[in-house]
Amino acid sequence: MFMWNVEKCLQLFDRVYVSSDYDYILEESEKLGARGIKRPPELCESNVPNIPVYQHALPYMDNPEIIVTVKVDSPTIKKEIIKQAKELMEHHDYNELMTVFPAHADANRVYGAVWALRRERLKNYKDFWNPQPDVLLVDDSIDIHTEADLIQAEKQMRNRVI
């Protein structure tokens, strides 16, 4: 299940990177054609915001103008949403784009499965805990953190093509 988003990204991007502290995940990602980035232990704690993880990965990339990140724990993200985020960032002057889960769309909680940033925005990010994206896309994927989430994601996957 954890490789599905890597596979989707490999269909959409010339270069795909996977940041992890697990050698197995890096090895499996590289078998598919992604480039692995070994994440240091201090960036693996549950309370670490995403921006420092992305900042750590940036020097290992081929100097991208835009990065589009896709969470591994949201395997039901539709490839079309990832593609839409990529195209919006490429064709507009947006500095930051995020998806939002429908349950949070009206509550100003912007964390969804996809986060796209321009390199300069990422390098100079101000408040890790308070993102202010230029664009929000609704993303109905399931963010898996519990067994109940996993069951819900499996049901969602059976009922549609992702």
Description:
By secondary structure, the chain is of the alpha/beta class. The protein has one domain: Spore Coat Polysaccharide Biosynthesis Protein SpsA, Chain A (Alpha-Beta Complex). Helices cover 36% and strands 17% of the residues. It contains 6 helices and 6 strands. The protein has helices spanning 4-12, 23-32, 50-57, 79-91, 119-123, 147-159, and strands at residues 17-20, 35-38, 66-70, 96-100, 114-118, 135-138. The strands form 2 sheets. It has a 4-stranded mixed β-sheet with strand order 3-5-4-6. Strands 1-2 form a two-stranded parallel sheet. The longest helix is centred in the middle third of the chain and has 13 residues, at 79-91. The chain is globular, with a radius of gyration of 15 Å.
Structure in a nutshell:
Helices cover about 35% and strands about 15% of the residues. The protein is an alpha/beta fold.
Write down the overall mean pLDDT: 89
SSE-based structural type: alpha/beta
What is the name of the CATH topology? Spore Coat Polysaccharide Biosynthesis Protein SpsA, Chain A
- By CATH reckoning, the class would read Alpha Beta
Oligomer: single chain
Global shape: globular
Number of strands: 6
Name given to the CATH architecture: Alpha-Beta Complex
- List unreliable stretches of 5+ residues: none
Major β-sheet annotation:
4 strands, mixed
* Order of strands, widest sheet: 3-5-4-6
Sketch the topology as an H/E string, one letter per element.
HEHEHEHEEHEH
**Assigned CATH superfamily:** Spore Coat Polysaccharide Biosynthesis Protein SpsA, Chain A
**In what range is the share of β-strand residues?**
15-25%
How far is it from the N-terminal to the C-terminal residue, by CA? 13 Å
Number of domains: 1
The number of helical runs is 6
CA-atom Rg in angstroms: 15 Å
Proportion of helical residues: 25-40%
